[in-house]
From TrEMBL, chain A:
<feature type="transmembrane region" description="Helical">
    <location>
        <begin position="277"/>
        <end position="301"/>
    </location>
</feature>
<feature type="transmembrane region" description="Helical">
    <location>
        <begin position="190"/>
        <end position="209"/>
    </location>
</feature>
<keyword id="KW-1133">Transmembrane helix</keyword>
<dbReference type="InterPro" id="IPR001851">
    <property type="entry name" value="ABC_transp_permease"/>
</dbReference>
<keyword id="KW-0472">Membrane</keyword>
<dbReference type="InterPro" id="IPR043428">
    <property type="entry name" value="LivM-like"/>
</dbReference>
<keyword id="KW-0812">Transmembrane</keyword>
<dbReference type="GO" id="GO:0005886">
    <property type="term" value="C:plasma membrane"/>
</dbReference>
<feature type="transmembrane region" description="Helical">
    <location>
        <begin position="313"/>
        <end position="332"/>
    </location>
</feature>
From TrEMBL, chain C:
<keyword id="KW-0029">Amino-acid transport</keyword>
<dbReference type="InterPro" id="IPR000709">
    <property type="entry name" value="Leu_Ile_Val-bd"/>
</dbReference>
<feature type="domain" description="Leucine-binding protein">
    <location>
        <begin position="29"/>
        <end position="369"/>
    </location>
</feature>
<comment type="similarity">
    <text>Belongs to the leucine-binding protein family.</text>
</comment>
<keyword id="KW-0732">Signal</keyword>
<dbReference type="GO" id="GO:0006865">
    <property type="term" value="P:amino acid transport"/>
</dbReference>
<dbReference type="InterPro" id="IPR028082">
    <property type="entry name" value="Peripla_BP_I"/>
</dbReference>
<feature type="signal peptide">
    <location>
        <begin position="1"/>
        <end position="25"/>
    </location>
</feature>
<dbReference type="Pfam" id="PF13458">
    <property type="entry name" value="Peripla_BP_6"/>
</dbReference>
Length: 348, 295, 393
């Protein structure tokens, strides 16, 4: 299901060029793709501005940012390694439950829970990654990941002594951030916290995907066989990125648990996994901003439509999706994509 | 707390459970068969497949409850209404998306599901649609000491006839040959004078019609409300994935295995209850990543 | 809890500032945030409650004690974190002074800490798990609790010659609640629960479970499943001939939900249910309610959800009368304690101790009325039942 063929040069060695030339050229290209561009700065400045100028929307924005981070985590595997997953909710949910349980049984300090939530999801990702290496079609991967998520959902439902079952986890309480910033009712601390964590993780993700490692991933995505023959350890690379992606999803889940101070079975439900795929595809796959933009568009649409018609908002969202596809996602995405190409230094 | 373990090994009872499972599996197959064709053969991800089942289910429920038609008389409508809508949708919408990336197809078809679900809600309300079966389909009869639900026996007969018919059309008729040719190599098929567009449209229509029929037959057992396409989407996908995308035999076997395992699992190992179907799917896919019958 | 108390002080300051001392402003409209599942699998819950709440406002006028009531309906699609966010937005942004609705237990529980922090009354109109009202001193309830009804069903069963029972419940919070309550009460009375079956919530086919019931040959099977699932259950019960094998079907009234009872057909006639509301309840208040409801919403019949929404508004109106329009959260919740009124379901009151509803529980059987429709006809009444899980009886 690879969707984009735009590929930066420099990954395929040119015959006849001297090794030192090659190295220099590769480094130059890497530096270029890693360079920041005005549009990106603008995006994050706008995010920062929303923190100061939209105090009334902090609660909704927190939800947007968390969904965006979650979609970003899926983008790491789908956009950069070509692995489709319909079970990413498993990691999101596990992160949420771990963060919730940490706050009840261990400490209310937010960063500990965040980290542990992410780690737990990462471990699960690492443990289940080999299933993705089966020589299988996209459909099989889709269903195996979905199956794992559903098993986890049922397990959480059964383990009511630990998770509270269908009633949800009661008594989650998060201490002030750094001992200073109370998680207030207006969601200001929550939004700042979620935004900062997301930005940090974005920076790391960006660094990774523009590194040689990231390029090798894309080589795998575009043609695993060829990647293998030029010496990329395909299996290990995929396990690594899947684990990282799971960790990200876990942190997103932990953020949700901490900012809402509540965890229910919903975090593991099928619709989480489906929604996040939807959001990512809506925003565009394979350029890191897709998840964030998709989350903004989807949540805002949902908010607007469900205010107008609480019963039938889904119809209008559906219509928007259908129209977007019929017009052509590429055409709609052309604007940010063109921008991205410019950001990448005109690499075509 | 369980006291009665002796009865569980009764062979007549095991047969009853087997038949329940087969009936359930057959129903799943009819519901998913259209998807097996569009996804398996035409390589198009149509998550809106359940929406056609919804139309069939509603056609039957509404015609019975509002127009007073008998159950059997509604079944042709349950097939024709979604088939017709399917044909129109294929010609106007789906046809533009055959060559688009899978992710576009996902986005598009899930959009259609959202619209279908809310439209059904808006038109007919959000509550369950219920029907009353004719008396001759209610209750059970005994065959050589094995108790069999009449409706379940009916389901098995109808679905078995459909399976045989489908297999025949697909493998023994000119239409089937053309469809397989069109799927394998569109350009070559066109070159041979096969009207690929008409073939695809009619296949899509039949697939949608079958989904509708499955929905109608399932009202009594699976229930029918506006969220049906979302609730059962996963089940359809499981049947097709586990079965493999080579044809209809794989999904048919998969549906039977899942149906029997689900019913038997819930009876003999209730604590595994909801896990069964997913565990089974994962195990089968690990053993046979391409599904039971691979291309 | 200590941490919470410290915090409450801070939050109080914040919310009071935010709401701009609304308490005695008088004349300012009072916003009621009605958070319901209006879409998704539980949409019919939301529709019934919304229709009934609006009916109450239409019947009694939008103004009470000088305050105009403004209902703000929000859809949470049955997802708990959405419920929480909507409740929070309603409170801090839209300045809602009462939050109400809550279609499912986790949704009500998600909002409870908010009610405490912001000191905003939370009127639970649907969710039925006993513990909800214990999660915050600002939570009150106008629906019912599972143990309230289930305990009386168990009592009735034992008193009517049923001594061996198999329980069959959906495998989720309320179902397990019902299973435990039934087993406990029935056991105390000397009955025997032969087996306890739990059916997965997303379960399309009851065949294997009903087969188990048939094997065990109990006097009766006690059933608790979510309302939409009741119909297929009863059909398969009859299909297997269990009704003719002498096994009685006793159930929580959600199984014969008035909303869809009429379309269930004859299989529904086998059910004996216990519940707090039937659209066929024989009283003037109920006749007027049903008639007005059906007039305003053609094709719908009010069910227990609707009456929960209707009484939720009744509770709010009376509390406002009592405070003279003062909508301060603490004053309102205090005013609600101990209120009693004649509801369409019969006499009800709010327990001043637990803030939970006290009401009659009726045993009913399904009958075809003179109009040819199916109704839950009450034949026995347990009066003024408190939630046994909290009153210790």
């Amino acid at each position: 299901m690879s969707t984009r063929t735009a590929f930066s040069p420099g990954t395929v060695p040119l015959r006849g060029a001297a090794p030192t030339d090659l190295q220099a050229r590769a480094l130059r290209d890497l530096g270029r793709t890693g360079r920041w561009r005005p549009a990106e700065a603008l995006f994050w400045l706008a995010a920062l501005a929303s923190f100061f100028f939209l105090p009334d929307q902090h609660l909704l924005l927190t939800e947007v940012v968390i969904l965006g981070l979650f979609a970003l985590s899926l983008d790491l595997v789908l956009g950069y390694a070509g692995i489709v997953s319909l079970g990413h909710g498993a990691f999101f949910g596990l992160g949420a439950y771990v963060a919730g349980l940490v706050s009840i049984h261990l400490t209310g300090e937010p960063l500990t829970g965040l980290l542990l939530g992410g780690l737990a999801a990462g471990v699960l990702g690492f443990a289940t990654a080999p299933l993705l290496l089966l020589r299988a079609s996209d459909l099989t991967r889709l269903m195996v990941t979905l199956g794992i998520a559903m098993l986890l959902y049922e397990a959480a439902n059964k383990a009511a002594w630990l998770t509270g079952g269908a009633d949800g986890l009661q008594g989650v309480w998060i201490d002030p951030l750094f001992g200073r910033f109370e998680f207030d009712l207006f969601g200001t601390t929550a939004y700042g916290y979620a935004l900062a964590v997301t930005f940090l993780l974005f920076l790391i993700a960006r660094r990774i995907v523009t590194s040689p490692y990231g390029l090798s991933l894309r080589a795998i995505r575009d043609n695993a066989l060829r990647a293998n023959t030029i010496g990329v350890p395909v299996g290990r690379r995929l396990v690594a990125i899947y684990t990282l992606s799971a960790l990200y999803a876990g942190i997103a889940g932990a953020l949700l648990a901490q900012t809402t101070m509540f965890v229910s079975l919903d975090v593991l439900a099928f619709h989480r996994s489906a929604d996040v795929l939807l959001v990512l595809v809506l925003g565009g796959v394979g350029y890191l901003y897709g998840g964030l933009i998709g989350a903004i568009v989807f949540k805002l649409l949902q908010d607007v439509f469900s205010t107008i018609t609480p019963e039938y908002w889904m119809f209008w969202i559906g219509l928007v999706l259908v129209v977007i596809v019929l017009i052509g996602r590429d055409r709609i995405n052309a604007a940010p994509l063109a921008l991205w190409h410019r950001i990448r230094g005109g690499a075509k | 707390m369980s006291t009665a373990t002796t009865t569980t090994r009764d062979p007549a009872l095991m047969l009853t459970i087997l038949i329940d499972g087969i009936a359930y599996g057959m129903l799943l197959f009819v519901l998913a068969s259209g998807l097996a064709v569009t996804l398996g053969l035409m390589n198009f991800i149509n998550l809106a497949h359940g929406a056609f089942a919804l139309m069939g289910g509603y056609a039957t429920a509404l015609l019975m409850n509002r127009a007073g038609l008998p159950f059997l008389a509604t079944l042709p409508f349950a097939f024709l209404v979604p088939a017709l809508i399917g044909a129109v949708a294929e010609r106007t919408l789906y046809v533009r998306l055959y060559r688009r990336p899978h992710l576009d197809q996902v986005l598009f078809s899930i959009g259609l599901v959202f619209m279908a679900v809310t439209a059904a809600d808006w038109l007919f309300g959000s509550q369950q649609q219920l029907i009353t079966l004719p008396a001759w389909l209610q209750g059970r009869f005994e065959l050589a000491g094995v108790a069999i639900g009449r409706y379940r026996a009916f389901l098995i007969l109808v679905c078995a006839a459909l399976v045989v018919g489908l297999q025949f059309v697909l493998t023994r008729t000119r239409f089937g040959a053309r469809l397989r040719a069109a799927v394998d190599d569109q350009r070559a098929a066109r070159g041979l004078g096969i009207n690929v567009g008409v073939i695809f449209a009619s296949t899509f229509a039949v697939g949608s019609g079958l989904a509708g029929l499955g929905g109608a037959l399932g009202v009594e057992i699976l229930g029918m409300d506006p969220t049906f396409p979302l609730k059962f989407m996963v089940y359809f996908l499981i049947v097709v994935t586990v079965g493999g995308t080579a044809g209809l035999t794989g999904p048919f076997l998969a549906a039977l295995i899942i149906g029997v395992a689900d019913v038997a699992g819930k009876y003999y190992a209730p604590e595994l209850g909801a896990f069964m179907i997913y565990l089974l799917m994962i195990v089968i896919l690990i053993l046979r990543p391409q599904g039971l019958i691979a291309r | 809890m200590k941490r919470r108390d410290v915090l409450v002080g801070a939050m109080l300051a914040a919310t009071t500032m935010a709401t701009g001392l609304p308490a005695l402003a008088g004349g300012e409209p009072l916003k009621v945030g009605l958070i319901l599942p209006m879409s998704g699998p539980f949409a019919s819950t939301g529709r019934e409650i919304e229709a009934a709440a609006k009916l109450y406002v239409a019947e009694h006028g939008a103004e009470v004690a000088g305050r105009e009531i403004e209902l703000v309906v929000k859809d949470d699609a049955g997802v708990a974190d959405t419920t929480k966010r909507l409740a929070q937005e309603l409170i801090v942004r839209d300045k809602a002074e009462v939050i109400a609705g809550f279609g499912l237990t986790p949704l009500a529980l998600a909002a409870a800490p908010l009610a405490t922090r912001a000191k905003v009354p939370e009127i639970v109109m649907a969710a039925a798990t006993s513990s909800i009202t214990e999660q915050s001193p600002f939570v009150t309830r106008t629906s019912y609790t599972t143990p309230q009804v289930t305990s009386k069903i168990a009592e009735w069963a034992k008193a009517n010659g049923i001594s061996r029972v198999v329980t069959l419940v959906s495998d989720y919070g309320p179902g397990i609640d019902a299973e435990k309550t039934f087993a406990q009460v029935f056991d105390d009375l000397g009955g025997e629960v032969v087996d306890s079956l739990r059916v997965p919530l997303a379960n399309p086919d009851f065949a294997p479970f009903l087969q188990k019931v048939a094997d065990l040959k109990p006097d009766a099977v006690f059933v608790f499943v979510p309302s939409g699932v009741g119909a297929p259950f009863m059909k398969q019960f009859v299909e297997r001939g269990l009704d003719k094998s002498g096994i009685k079907l006793i159930a929580d009234g959600g199984v014969t939900d008035d909303d869809i009872l009429n379309s269930m057909g004859d299989p529904a006639l086998v059910a004996i249910t216990g519940f707090h509301y039937s659209a066929a309840h024989d009283s003037e208040a109920n006749k007027a309610f049903v008639e007005a409801f059906q007039k305003a919403n053609p094709g719908m019949r009010p069910n227990f959800m609707a009456v929960g929404g209707y009484d939720g508004m009744a509770l709010l109106y009376q509390a406002l009368e009592k405070t003279g329009g003062d909508s301060d959260g603490t004053a309102l919740i205090e005013a609600m304690k101990g209120l009693s009124w004649e509801s369409p379901r019969g006499p009800v009151s709010i327990d001043p101790e637990t803030r939970d509803i006290v009401q009659n529980v009726y045993m009913r059987r399904v009958e075809r009325g003179a109009d040819g429709e199916l109704w839950n006809v009450e034949f026995e009444t347990f009066e003024a039942v408190k939630d046994p899980a909290k009153s210790g009886s």
